[in-house]
Task: structure prediction
Amino acid sequence: MRARRRQRAAVLVGCLAVVAGSGSAPGIGTAEDGADRILGAAISSSHAYETLAHLTDRIGPRLSGSANLERAVAWTAEQLRGYGLDRVWTEKVMVPHWVRGVETGRIVSPVEHPLVLTALGMSEPTPLEGVTAEVVEVTGFEELRALGDRARGKIVLFNRPIVPNGGEERGYGSAAGLRYRGASEAAKQGAVGMLIRSLGTASYRLPHTGGMAYEEGAPRIPAAAVSAEDAELIHRLLAAGEAVRVSYVLGCRTLPDAESANVLAEIRGREKPEEIVLIGAHLDSWDVGTGALDDGAGVAMVMETMRLVRALGLAPRRTIRAVLFTNEENGLRGGRAYAEAHRSELDRHVAAIECDGGAARPLGFGVSAGEGGVEIVRRVASRLEVLGAGEVKAGGGGADIGPLAEARVPLLSVRQDGTRYFDYHHTIADTLDKVDPKELALNVAALGVLAWSLAEMPETLPRLEPKTEVRSFQAAPVKPPQVAPRPPGS
Amino acid sequence: MRARRRQRAAVLVGCLAVVAGSGSAPGIGTAEDGADRILGAAISSSHAYETLAHLTDRIGPRLSGSANLERAVAWTAEQLRGYGLDRVWTEKVMVPHWVRGVETGRIVSPVEHPLVLTALGMSEPTPLEGVTAEVVEVTGFEELRALGDRARGKIVLFNRPIVPNGGEERGYGSAAGLRYRGASEAAKQGAVGMLIRSLGTASYRLPHTGGMAYEEGAPRIPAAAVSAEDAELIHRLLAAGEAVRVSYVLGCRTLPDAESANVLAEIRGREKPEEIVLIGAHLDSWDVGTGALDDGAGVAMVMETMRLVRALGLAPRRTIRAVLFTNEENGLRGGRAYAEAHRSELDRHVAAIECDGGAARPLGFGVSAGEGGVEIVRRVASRLEVLGAGEVKAGGGGADIGPLAEARVPLLSVRQDGTRYFDYHHTIADTLDKVDPKELALNVAALGVLAWSLAEMPETLPRLEPKTEVRSFQAAPVKPPQVAPRPPGS
Result:
C-alpha cells in the first residue's frame, strides 16, 4: 500500500496526462472543449484523494447521529466554500441515531466456537443475557416459508453466498432483501433471532453490517450478520445432522433522532440557471471502517468536480448542483428530505448523477432516462473510451436520488469495476488504503465529463417515462425500498 | 466455499485418478510399486480432509495449555490406533500455558480511531489501565538503534510490510525476527510498549498473532500486532508530522506450565526396523482461528500417510514413525522433548520430514542433507512431476524437527504454493474453508510417496554435514531460535 502511495504523484502527472490534450483548443463555451479540460485536469491532480484522506483519516467513520458525521458536514461545507462556488449551504435533516454496543456470539453446541458477528444497523438489542436457541438455516424467503412452524423459537440463519459481479441471481442484490427484511419475515414465523451470512465476496472472517428495518406489527427480533466462515461452519454442523445451538448478545440501541444536514453547493448556469444537473454522493457511512469506498470516494468525486469546473473558469450553460446526502445507510432521510424540500424545482432537474459504487476504475455510466437517453450519454462518454470508461448501459441511479424518479428526473450513475467492492463493503476494512489514487482520479474525470456535458449541451436528456422502475447497474445497487418511517426507540 | 465442497467427491475420484495407474503392476516389495499405490490411493480419497474437518470443526483451536489441545492429543491417538499400526503412544511434554484476555487499542490523538490488534503469544499483559504513549515507527532493528534515546517512554511500532513469496528480503522471514525479538530490543532502548504491523499479505483489517519471547534482563513490555490498515494509518499520520498517541490494553496471562504430549505412531520396518523415517507436523495451533492451515493440514497429511501405507498392506524396509508435535507455536517444547527423549536413536533416524506449510497444492520438496541428497530426492520426486509436485530444492526442514539437525538427521519438508498462506496465517480466518480437499489429497500423495520411498529404497540419504545451518524453503519458515526457557508467570 505504501509503495502505491509513493508512486502517486509521478503517475498522476505521467502516463495518462497525454489523453488530456486530445486536440482541443483553449476557450470556453463549447461542451467538448470544457469536457477535455476537465478530463485533463482531473487525471493530473491528486486533490480528490487528499479530500478522501481527510474524510477517512482525519474525521473517520460517519454514522448518522455521530459527532463525526456532523464534523464531515461542517468540513465539506467549508471546503466547498473555499472553492469559490456560487453558493454553498446546508439543509437540516433529522436522522436516526442508532449506536452499536457490545456484540458477541458463539456456537454453544454440539461444539463451542466463537462466532464473528456484527449487528445489522437499526437492529434491536438482545436481552442482556442474549438470545440462545437452535438454528434453522434457509437460503431465502421461500425456504423460510416452507419451514412453517419449524422456525418457532429458533434463530433463523439466512445463508446465501454471493459472488463478485453475480448480478441479480448471485450478486449482492440477490441477498440484500434478506438482510433488509429477514428479521421480520423470520419473526412472523415465530423465530426469536435472525442471523445472516455476511453479504461479502471475500473470506477473511469479516462480518458485513448493513441496513435492516422491521415491519409494522411483526415482533422486533435482534438481527446480526455472521462471517462467511461462521455461516459455513454452522452449515457443516447442520449438514451432519447435528442440532446447532447458538447464543448471541447485541448491545445496540436506538436513541432519539439527531440533527444532521445535506450539504449543497452550486455553480450557477450562465444561460439557464434554473435548469439543474445534480451530482450526488452520501456523506454518512457505517460506523465500522472509515467509509472510504462507501461512500467517501463518491463524496470526493463530487467535491472535486465542483472544484475543477470552478478552478478552470468554466461557465456551464445550466446549473451544476452538488449534494452530499446525509443518512443514506440507515434511513435514506437525506435523499427523501432533498426530494421533499426541492419538490417545486424537480421538473427543472434535467439529470441527477449518483456516485456510490466505490473507487475502482470507472467503466462508464448507467442511465435511466426516456427513449434515446442512453444514446445521448454514449456520445458524451465516447471521449472516455481510451480510458476504458466509455461503456454506457441502460439502468442507472442510486439510493439518494431514487426519490427523484417520481418527478421523472433522468437518473445516472458512474459505473465502477465492482469485482472487489463487496470484499470490503460495510466492514472494518473499508479504509483509505483500498482506494487507488489513480483510479479515483479517473473517476473524477468520468464524473466531471458527464456532469459538464449534461450541463452544457444544447439539448437535455429525455425524462423518465412515468412510473419507470429504476434499476441501477452500479456496483452498489439501489438499497431496497424502506418501509414507512417508524418512531425511533424500541 | 460450499460449491467446492459439493464437488469434492466427484473431483477426487475423477480427473486426477488417471495418474494413479501409471503402469505399475500390483505387488509389494519394490519402492516404485509401493509409491505408485500410495499415490493412487491418496488422490482418490477424501479421508485426510475428513480428519482435518474433525480437528478444526469438532475440536477447534488448539493452543498449548488448552483443553482442546489435549482433546486433539487423545483423538488423534485414538484414530491412529484405529488404523491398526504397529505401535501408537504418547510422550508427556510440559508446555507453556499462555491465555489471551481482553485486547483493545485506539489512536488517542491527533484523531481518535480504534486499532484492530491482538497480543503476541507469550506477551505480558499491560497494566489494567493500559499503556498510553506516543508512537515511534521503525522498519527494523537498525532504524530502532538509530533512534537512540528517542524511543524512551514511547511505543515502538515495527512497520515492515511483507509480500507473498517475498523471500528473505520481503517475505515472512524478513519480519519474523522483529515480531519475535522486537519487544526486548525496544525495551532495551526505554520503550514502554511494542506494536508490530501484522505479518500478513492481505488487507482485510486482520491482526496476525505469533510467537515472541523476552530476552533475559530486558524489561518485559507488552507486545501486540496491529492490522496492516492500522499500521498504515499511523504511518500516514506520522508522515504528516503529527505526534501520534496510542493506548492499548492487553489482558493476556501466563499460567503455570500444563501437561501435554507428543503423539507417536509406527509402522515397523520389515528389514531394518531400527532405521527410522520420521514424518511430522504440529498438533497445537494458535487460539485464533481453528488452525486448519497451521497446522491441521500437516497433521492430516501425516495421519493419512500412516493410514494408507497400512491399509494398502505395504511393508516398508525401514520404520516409518509419525510424530504429532505439541507446542510448536509458542515454545517448541514438543520438538525439543522429542529430540531429547530419542537422543539415543537419532543416529538411526535416516530422515525427518515436516509438514507445516499449509495445504495449497504441493510443488515438491525441500531437502537439507549431505552432498548428493537433493539428487536422490529428485529421483523420488520424478513420479510427482505430472502433478506439478516434482520440484526439489536444497533447504528443507521445519521448526519441530530442527533440533534433530545436531544429530545430522537429513531434514526435509513438503513444499506448497505459499502465495496465499500468509493471508490467513495466525489469524481468526485460518479455518477449514481455506483448504481445498483436492489440494490436500495431492499433499498426502506427495508426503506418502516421499516417506515410503525413503523408507523403502536400498540406500539412505547422506547425513547433514556437522554444524549445517538448516534453512527451510517451506512457506512457513523455521521459527527463530527460542531464548532459554524462563519460569512462567510475570
